[in-house]
Specification:
With about 350 residues, the protein is α+β, with helices and mostly antiparallel strands. The protein contains 13 helices and 10 strands. It binds cobalamin (B12). Cobalamin binds next to α2, α6, β7, β9 and α8.
Length: about 350
């Protein structure tokens, strides 16, 4: 064990912009593996429903121990970046109709770049190191007291609520495990489970990915007409369970990190964002310049929020002409919904 390396690496990560830092032991997370199995049985979800790439058939099995990623692993460094910034906090008050993009995503590039720098730091000192998401991040962070599970299924932290993006560096460096007291930040309110519009939080701490608006907004799959009104103005992801969480009230938004934004090169679903940031104007997103998923979500959002506006129906009709059959059915549904209003 090297105390110098321990403090050096922590200082380095904090200087690179990490807001959370901890070291977890390499163990077999059998309980986590059982929970994944149970979740799939209870909901009928496949790993694709959890947004795991079709070709990655061993994702959850791999996460059960870091040795599956690095056989000589001795430590898991957990890094977090506070994701609630002044841009994310801003709720548009003006006359334009705006879409909503989940907050944490724009800090994935931040936490990835910090983890990349920590990986280089370790390799330069002769250690093996890999960074990524091949670790059950919330489970590991909870295990070492960096935070605790909220009933919304997201990790809650004392200083940053649940708005933290996480990433791990797995290494064979002999680092000391973080010894923190277990924290309990989730109260008895159950506001998250009661407010989720689709009932995706089917029990406290348990998310049904087939009903969660996060994958629903990010996948190309058909969205059932009964789900569409529940999407509100959500274009990519959903923060409702976190927005109602008392542990997220009163957070001070941070200054935006210049590295924040979206990461099309490293995050598959960010490619579908077509370059839009935070709260884009909905009418603009109907155009054929944008990916099909964005156009679909934008027209649903307009059906949900654009009633009473004279410019919405003509814009939907005009852009419908550039749609293929699939997309046209959503545009037609939006026309029918708004005409009935
Ligand atoms: C698959 C996945 C999803 C799936 C499934 C979500 C889920 N909750 O499992 C989908 C696509 C739906 C999803 C959605 C989102 N995700 Co996601 N996702 C992941 C991923 C890749 C794996 C998570 C996982 O292992 N799920 C499987 C389940 C079985 O594991 P689990 O949730 O940990 O289950 C535990 C609890 O149920 C607990 N438990 C069960 N009963 C009880 C009882 C008590 C009393 C307690 C205390 C605990 C407890 O035990 C289980 C583990 O043993 C991680 C990245 C990673 N590598 O970890 C990101 C990750 C969890 N996601 C993240 C984010 C930001 C989101 C969204 C908020 C994005 C958004 N705004 O739209 C939503 C949140 C939805 C929600 N309410 O959970 C962040 C969370 C950061 C944080 N602060 O926790 C992560 C860590 C990614 C990252 N790099 O930062 N995600």
């Amino acid at each position: 064990m090297s105390p110098t390396l321990d403090s050096q690496i922590k200082e380095f990560a904090l200087a690179e912009g990490a807001d959370l830092f901890g070291v977890a032991p390499v163990e077999r997370y059998a309980e986590y593996g059982m929970q994944v199995q149970e979740r799939m049985e209870e909901t009928g979800a496949t790993s694709e429903d959890f947004m795991i790439a079709r070709e990655d058939t061993s994702f959850f099995a791999r996460l059960v121990t870091a040795e599956n990623t690095l056989p000589e692993a001795k430590a898991i460094i957990v890094i977090g970046a506070y994701a609630y910034d002044e841009l994310a906090a801003h709720t548009y008050q003006g006359p334009e109709l705006r879409g909503k993009i989940a907050r944490t995503y724009s800090y994935y590039p931040v936490v990835r770049q910090i983890a990349e720098a920590v990986t280089k730091f370790l390799r330069n000192r002769g250690y093996a190191a890999v960074h990524g998401q091949d670790v059950p991040l919330k489970y590991v962070a909870d295990r070492i007291g960096l935070g605790c599970y909220g009933k919304h299924g997201v990790l809650l932290t004392e200083r940053y609520g649940s708005y933290v993006a996480l990433r791990a560096v797995i290494s064979n460096a002999p680092l000391a495990v973080t010894q923190s007291e277990k924290v309990q930040l989730c109260r008895d309110c159950e506001l998250c489970t009661r407010t989720c519009p689709t009932g995706a939080l089917y029990a406290p701490y348990k998310v049904n990915p087939r009903l969660c608006l996060n994958p629903i907004t990010r996948r190309i799959d058909h969205i059932a007409p009964e789900i569409r009104p529940k999407m509100g103005n959500r274009i990519h992801g959903c923060d409702i369970c976190q927005e109602v969480c008392p542990a997220n009230r009163g957070l001070t938004p941070r200054k935006p990190d210049p590295r924040s934004g979206f990461d099309p090169q490293h995050h598959a679903s960010h490619k579908e964002l077509g370059g839009i940031e935070r709260s884009p104007e909905l009418l603009r997103l109907l155009s054929s310049e944008y990916p099909q998923i964005i156009r679909r979500n934008a027209v649903i959002a307009l059906a949900n929020t654009g009633w009473g506006r004279k410019d919405v129906l003509p814009a939907i009709r005009a852009n419908m002409e550039t749609c293929g059959d699939d997309l046209r059915s959503y545009f037609q549904w939006a026309v029918d919904t708004l005409s009935d209003h």
